[in-house]
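Weekly puzzle thread! Below is a chain. First person to post its structure in token form gets bragging rights.
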Amino acid sequence: MSQQKEIEPPIRWVTDSWPNYTDKDGSGLYHELMRSVFHSGQELNVQYAPWLRALELVKSGNADFTGAMPLNSNYVMSQHIVLSQPISVLIKKAYLDSEILTQLPELVGVWRSGYRNELLSGELKSIVKGVPTESTDSGFNLVRHNRVDYLIDVRTILATHLAKQPDKLEFELVDIGSLNLYMAFSKSERGKRIAKQFDSRFAELKKSGKLAEIYNKYQQTLPSQL
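Winning reply:
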């Protein structure tokens, strides 16, 4: 019996909406990647939810997978890195100091709800202080109006958002770390089967050159695997 027939449809993907990755119009790197992975008529249902809600749905088995995120023992993680990115802060140029990393413990930051615990390493987590917010827009406005000192996120997310702002020249992006991100699957037998299919198909797409085409389309570098 084929692996596809063993997985009862639909495959349930839950994700936050990120520009150039999971836009709600169906465009973006992750959308195109998933359409290539789950092919040959497999039914893939996409549900959009805030990041913390998406994690809970996968953890409880009410969705099959989400991501991308750093390695986490609460989930079955893909074997393949799907994104390697700097983690950055967006800060006003007027307040920018060349020693920003040493300044971080004294500054107040903002991040999307759930990101501090799920995205930051222990070292960064110990020096990043501040508050969560529900959206990149609200976080940017807190920086703009001097309510906080910086917004922290994956660099490409910040860069995409900044490029659309009329006052973009007032801000700077500074890399403070790096991330390897993976897809996260439910810790169930079903989740394990779907993760296995993802890894197998990801490897096939890489070998064929299709994966490089997808990443190049979105100006992303195909991650080097550990």
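Puzzle host: Confirmed. Bonus trivia for everyone else. Residues 18 and 161 are 10 Å apart (CA to CA).
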